[in-house]
Every structure is written in structure tokens, then in C-alpha cells.
Amino acid sequence: MSQFTPANQDLARALDDVLGTKVASITEHRGQLTAEIPAEYWLDVAWQLRDEPQLNFQQLIDLCGVDFLGYGDEEWETAEATGSGFSRGVDALGPGRFSWEDRPEASEIQNRFAVVVHLLSLKHNRRLRLRCFAPDDELPFLSSLVEVWSSVNWYEREAFDLFGIVFEGHPDLRRILTDYGFMGHPFRKDFPLIGNVTVRYDQDKRRVVYEPVEIEPRVLVPRVIRRDSRYVDEKIDSGEAR
pTM for the full model? Predict the structure, then answer.
């Protein structure tokens, strides 16, 4: 346990004692402990994390989905960029800028979809991050945690809606942010952001019409605040103003 900070050593030891081989790995990054749980133990581990006195994680703070397709790809120049101007430019070929027919495939990724959970133990004043990879990339699914922590209900619906991750045993697994007739899952990295058609209501035809998208793909450049003479009052800048 020497690889962990003193604040996390007791928690890492408790996880090892209680869960044993049900934990694939335990890592620490910037003071945050992460336990990776195999899919077959996902629900069992959740019950133990909540009910075992050594752990006692009564509260689930958050659950979200993760898509590792294109993980590490970056459209911004970061390694060889200068520190000034817009020379950190972009290649305009970032995630989502493709047609549906040309969308990327995940054939070279072993584990594409994951679910991440953040837990809080009020009794022990501890936080824990869990990660679990879905065993099937074509139809990602995991057991629902609603029976363990009721607060996860809407979070699992959100992950299902945006990532297409199915939670077995969820009492009401339906979309929560997009429309019921929406096709696809917006946060998947194989979902085209530029779209193919636009939908609007035509007052003359009195019905919804579908038209080609007219928006040109573009990359948003972060606003950088610099000292610029156009925006500086000379008197204020020189200290003459009172």
C-alpha cells in the first residue's frame, strides 16, 4: 500500500480486505482513489461498498458514461505549439466531423464503453471512484445500481440516453434529455455532430420538414485575453488618471 498517499492507504487496505479479487485494480491520481471493477462483480461490489462497516459508502454522488473511441486524439496542437497567438491552431478534423456513412469504427479498441461512479462515505469521510467496462461494445450493458443507491436512477437514464449503455434491472430505462423518437446517442464518438438533415416546422405546409444542413463545420477557438492597445486607456495605463 506504499504506492498510495497516507490519506488513501486505509481505504485501499479496506477495499483489498473486503472485496479481494472482485477488484481488478486500484490506482491513485491526484489524491483520488479509483477501483476498477469487472462487470460480473459490479452489483455485488456495490452492495458491499454500501453495507460493509469498513467501507460504508452510503451516498452515490454521480454516475456517467465514457466512450474511449479515439481516446487521446486531439485536434489542437499541444506538444509543439507556441505559447502565443493562434498558432495552436486546429486541423478541423476533430470528433464528430464526419458523415454517418464514414463514421469511425472501434475495431482496435478492447474496451470502448465504461461507466464511472463517484461515492461518498459520510461515516468515514472518504470518497471513491469506481470504473467498470461494459463487456460488449456492440451492445454495452451493466447491472443497474438503483436497488443499492436510488439516486442513480436519473444518472443511469442519462448514460443510456447519451451513450447507449443499457442498465439491466433499471425500473424505467428511457431517454431523459433527447426526444423519444431520437435516433442514436449524442455522446458517442461515432455520432456525427454536423448532422445530415435539419428539422423545422414549416408554417406554410403546416408540418415538420427535413432539409439539408446548412451549417458549415467550424472549430471554436478559445478566447485569449491579452494586453492590447485597442482596449487600454492610455491615461489609465500610464497612471495619469485620478
Answer: 0.76
